[in-house]
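User: Fold this, then the next.

Assistant: Folding the first:
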Amino acid sequence: MPVSTDGRLAGRLAVLDRLAEERGIRIEHDVALAPLTTLRVGGVADRMTMVGSTPELVDALGLARDAGIRAGVLGKGSDIVVADAGVRGLVIRNRADGIAIDGSLVLAESGAAMATLVKRCTTSGLAGIEFGISIPGSVGGAVWANAGAHGGEMKDVVVSVDAWETENEARLALANVDCDFAYRDSRFKRGHEIVLATLLRLTAGDSGEIASRVAAHQEQRRATQPLAHQNAGSVFRNPPGDHAGRLIDEAGLKGHRVGSAEVSTLHANFIVVDRGGRAADVRAVGDHVRSVVAERLGVELAYEIEFVGDWGWDDRWATATTEMAGT
């Protein structure tokens, strides 16, 4: 059902609709976001537009700026928990997914699926991105979060990032060193810069051997993660020298349930949700886990998943390619 908006927001949404019509940008109203995320919870977006190329993505960001509306970019919908009250403003569904290979260099648009990127590189005999098969999000989300798995991270293969600075409407070319990559972190989490595309440098290898490593990663993921259940990926970052899942298990929290959500009994750093579940239940489980682990083991767990939308304390949707890794 349509979301309620205050008068000022309603006015800005009307401006957004008018500008979109003038510019030939198709806008949808009151779009359910749960089916567009891997966790499958949450409410509706006031407005949504889908883009199929980098220029269309830039145009959509400009549209939101001109209308005075907050905008967020949605890739493959992993690593996020959308509030039950939904998202105020404009959600840009990113389907800019071009991939170009030139020798050992790979240029991938931000909306490309990591799994597709890995398969293209494997076929081309390029090694170094095999870990990405276990990242269920988009390239943009993976860069945004410096996503990683199996001992590899995006920072290991990124040469440069093409980004859009939303406040000054400027296109930026950022070298790896300028991206401030850290464990599950980058400059894109903290500013007003949207990942448009990234240039990767890989190494030549035997396609068969690369494919074997990819298959082994896939098998490990199937054996250790609750892929048959709705989830958003790893819930917490691993503390230095330890693993969040081990700590949660040691605290006796596997199977802890609140309403429709519970700590996975297969992997304790995952929260799984029933069909038709509630985002509030996910947050309640996560907050309880953090509290108990801190009390019993003295470790403060930090969320890896992102809580986006209207949670009551803020109506922000992060102005970045928020999606990963788990994001």
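Now the next one, as you asked:
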Amino acid sequence: MTDKQPNNPLHGITLEHAVNELVEHYGWDSLAEKIRLNCFKKDPSVKSSLKFLRKTPWARDKVEKLYISTFSKVSTSPNPWGKAK
């Protein structure tokens, strides 16, 4: 069995790394607006957020989806060369 997962954008990314990157990119206030979770709103910290997210699969899923949509290297533009004529 192989450890490679070419179609998994979260392969090799820990939950802690994802939370840290999102906080660095958005800040706690903006992150709390994007994902309405108390662990991001009231006295937020990475440690308390991780504790909650590890126990709550639906919340972790939201964080992972935001991480993918924010940092995905796949272009959403249909034309990779810029604007269409």
